[in-house]
Write a structure and sequence with these properties.
This protein has 4 domains: about 90 residues, Flavodoxin domain (Rossmann fold), CATH 3.40.50; about 120 residues, Elongation Factor Tu (Ef-tu), domain 3 (Beta Barrel), CATH 2.40.30; about 120 residues, NADPH-cytochrome p450 Reductase, Chain A, domain 3 (Up-down Bundle); about 150 residues, Nucleotide-binding domain of ferredoxin-NADP reductase (FNR) module (Rossmann fold), CATH 3.40.50.80. The chain has 17 helices and 21 strands. Strand 14 and strand 15 form a beta hairpin. The longest helix is centred in the first third of the chain and has 19 residues. The N terminus is likely disordered.
């Protein structure tokens, strides 16, 4: 069985095609194959690698045991997998004459070891921010996902001028780290979970959060001895290692069933863990639509009292949050700028949910007379790049915080112009709700425009009765758009929402190719794909 994602789809499909077609990978007449793909329908090449791999294996003579499954992370990828798996296992059993009981036995992967006071030396139990990773004790390059750099937050200011939302401009000091970045790269920020949520989880489970424990893999041959660094305290694990704000997947609900003393609670959790239509509907309404995390689940399923060590085993690892860097190393070689909206919203149950990283950042601002706050970070390289030649014209579409990488691009192009280089047309489409509230970096953008560094097109969606978005402005300039991408070898960039904005923008570009460029629908789509393959049409989007 093969699970594959859609990252670098074109590279992967070319590699597979090249190797399989040249018979470097020989035919598989005796091989049985089953493929489940990991994808997201908001992206163009949805599960392309899985579909191609499944088809090519069959062409080479392998026997498909069960149909290719396609997981959609834009909806519920775990539900897709469980639905596929429930039909997949009977097919496997039938194919290989295996007798199945039809029942899944739930067994724990890790066993608990508690450490009484005095058993573990103080240096072996990491507390506070140092606990995030062992490497934070000794800062040595190179810095990466397993060895992040503990950067000082030197600037943390509000960008919005009004309204009920917040957008932060954060500057991270990377001097001395030897980390290098380019405009368009991402910075990964390792957050810390909200203290109130951590304490509440301790209350609900009746655990002493300062108790020191270890989780030991019951499979002694496994290379994964612990699910996270051990020994540690529950407080440290819940603060630094575990994703406690994510919506619990159905397999977690299934494991929680055994800790319910009330039959109604048991049946409710058990139903949500199934792939039946009723179970899916209940999971969608109770967990997804209501945005319930593990704390909310335990608050509302009152008879469910799981031991905290099992909760720690079940929860996924806390992942870094990635942000498009909003600065250029030409101007800021020793600082990385982040532009981020603080996530905070009211759920259907009346609770207030908060984003992990942005909430933490919002609470950690430099204060006079106090040490600068620090946060673990590393640089992730991106394919989102300016043209090599500064005279190449570019069009950028980035509403909201989609502006972030383009702020770096503008700094870069302005720097080039000031140093005597020819700089091509630089056109920006930016959108926000209100000019006087969330027009971020207004002064900077207008200064760039005054200096001739950018042609600025700004849409304020709610400053008039009829909403105006960047897509409306772009659609009004189809001739200019075709002139740049069709006649002048220019580059086109999108940053922001993948589900709606990026799709609409793509359709407008195709419209320009058709109506102004005189191409058919099929030729216009092919033209755009060619631009993508040549990295002249680039998207840095998220759903």
């Amino acid at each position: 069985m093969l699970g594959v994602g859609v990252l670098h789809v074109q590279v992967l499909t070319r590699f597979i095609s090249k190797n399989l077609s040249r018979k470097l990978i020989s035919p598989f007449p005796k091989l049985k194959h089953m493929v489940f793909g990991l994808g997201n329908k908001t992206y163009e090449h949805y599960n392309a690698v899985a579909i191609y791999m499944d088809k090519r294996m069959e062409e080479l003579g392998a026997t498909r045991v069960y149909e290719c499954g396609l997981g959609d992370d834009d909806a519920n990828i775990e539900d897709d997998f469980i639905t596929w798996k429930d039909k997949f296992w009977p097919a496997v059993c039938e194919k290989f004459n295996i007798e199945s009981t039809g029942e899944e036995e739930l067994t724990r992967q890790f066993s608990l070891v508690t450490h009484p006071p005095g058993e573990i030396a103080p240096n072996d139990v990491f507390t506070g921010e140092i606990s995030r990773l062992h490497s934070l004790q000794n800062q040595r390059p190179p810095f990466d996902a397993k060895n992040p750099f503990l950067a000082q937050i030197t600037v943390n200011r509000e960008l919005h001028k009004g309204g009920d939302r917040s957008c932060l401009h954060v500057e991270l000091d990377i001097s001395g780290s030897k980390m290098r970045y380019e405009a368009g790269d991402h910075v990964a920020v390792y957050p810390i979970n909200d203290t109130d949520l951590v304490n509440r989880l301790g209350e609900l489970s009746g655990a002493d959060l300062d108790e020191v424990f270890s989780l030991i893999n019951t499979d002694q041959e496994s290379t994964k001895k612990h699910p996270f660094p051990c020994p540690t305290s529950y407080r440290t694990a819940l603060s630094h290692y575990l994703e406690i704000t994510a919506l619990p997947r159905t397999h977690i609900l299934r494991e929680l069933v055994e800790y319910c003393s009330n039959e109604e609670d048991k049946n409710k959790l058990l139903l949500m863990a199934t792939s039946s239509p009723e179970g899916k509907a209940l999971y969608q309404s109770f967990v997804v639509d209501a945005c319930r995390n593990i704390v909310h689940i335990l608050e509302d399923i009152k008879s469910c009292k799981p031991p905290l060590d099992h909760v720690c085993e079940l929860l996924p690892r806390l992942q870094p949050r990635y942000y498009s860097i909003s600065s250029s190393p030409k101007l800021h070689p020793e600082t990385v700028h982040v532009t981020a909206v603080v996530v905070k919203y009211k759920t259907a149950t009346g609770r207030i949910n908060k984003g992990v990283a942005t909430t933490w950042l919002a609470e950690h601002k430099p204060e006079e007379g106090k040490p600068l706050p620090r946060v673990p970070v590393y640089i992730r390289k991106s394919q989102f790049r300016l043209p090599l030649q500064s005279q190449t014209p570019i069009v950028m579409v980035g509403p909201g915080t989609g502006l972030a990488p383009f702020r770096g691009f503008l700094q870069e192009r302005s720097f080039a112009r000031k140093n005597g280089k020819d700089v091509g047309d630089t056109i920006l489409y930016f959108g926000c709700r209100h000019r006087d509230q969330d027009y971020i970096y207004q002064q900077e953008l207008e200064e760039f425009e005054k200096n001739g560094d950018v042609q600025l097109n700004v849409a304020f969606s709610r400053d008039q009765d009829k909403k105006i978005y960047v897509t409306h402005l772009l659609e009004n300039n189809l001739e200019q758009l075709w002139d740049i991408i069709g006649k002048r070898n220019g580059h086109f960039y999108i940053c922001g929402d993948a589900k709606n904005m990026a799709v609409d923008v793509r359709n407008i570009v195709i419209k320009a190719v058709k109506e102004v460029g005189g191409r058919s629908e099929a030729d216009a789509v092919q033209f755009l794909k060619k631009l993508e393959s040549m990295k002249k049409y680039s998207a840095d989007v998220w759903s």
